[in-house]
Amino acid sequence: MRKTLYIYLLREMLIAVPICLAGVFFVLLTGQLFQLMKILFSSSCSVWDIAEVVLLVMPRLAQFATPMAIMLGVMLVFVRLNGDNELIALRAAGTSFVEFLPPILGVLLFATVVSFINSLYIIPASNSAFEMKLRSLGRASVPTILKEGVFVSSIPKLVFFFRSVDHSDMSIKGVFIQDQRQPNEQVTISAEAAQLVVPPDSKSITFQIENGMMTRVPEHMQEAQAMSFKNYDFTISLDELLGRVETGVKKRNEMNLTELWESVKKSQGTLASYYGLELYQRLAFPSACLLLGLIGPPLGALFRQRSRLTGITIGVGIFLTYYVLMTAGRGLAESNRIPPSLAAWLPNLLCASLAVYLWWKMQTETPFIFDRLIDKVAGFCPKNSAEGKQSL
Asked: What are 156-169's pLDDT values in tens digits?
């Protein structure tokens, strides 16, 4: 009996979870592509470049998509079982709710292990490769700023004007550059000619400017300077070209677990919290696959067929609450208001408490303290009513 039940539940979950995972992936990937659209379409990238970018963002999206997909997939299995009265039949035959736990734990532990491997090993490598790919696309987008006779302001705090451009050798005649990257100071450069140099392995591009004049004007118009030059190198980092801010030689999301731990030990104060938060979240977020997944079965067992939308709404609300708590904790930890460990693990502790409460109530068949809240949520959902809730 139990073997048949376990195989049946596993088959149901192995259908529902991949479908939910594909749906969540599609939503997150669409949002990510909208953010990258400016870079992708401002450069001469090919279809393979776009496919490579999508492939490199997949591990990072999986870190967020997997916990939500696991919870919704497992919950929908029990929503269907309850809607078709199969759950009631099993309970009437003497099957306790805890007996459903082994196959559920099997799926959740497998997803958790995969998520840990993704978080600790795959994501740092994919983030590093993603940054390199964006820099290569940045080099490909360099010709887009070499426009003749128009002011180009696509790079933040920089304005370019070129009288004529020879794209064959990247030589320029008639150069005007306005630079406002330094706070409280404006730099203006005008020159006869320039040569654009793009080293293949460098993180920057350089305008080698000849026979020009530079003016520096502070905010209060005091101590303004003007100077002429014969040769001057004007450098722009590829991060600036892409509208990004470079924070260091190797960013924390590109570090593996050992590098993060070493950075935490060597750092103090705000910098220690900066690296510590990344370290704890690398461990805490994969654990959410297990903890959020355990919330799904009892939550799905609360609703009959007509109240499926209510269960899904509450499930999505729980995940959004988890993500808001994680984001808020991240902000508080980075400002040194709370410890990084608390910021990373508090949402997981709350999920674990909720999961234990829900399983205990379903096993003991006692009323929930939030029955009235569930009825109110059901009243706002289409085709839902208080009759749709099952009191177990």
From this structure: 788 889 999 887 78
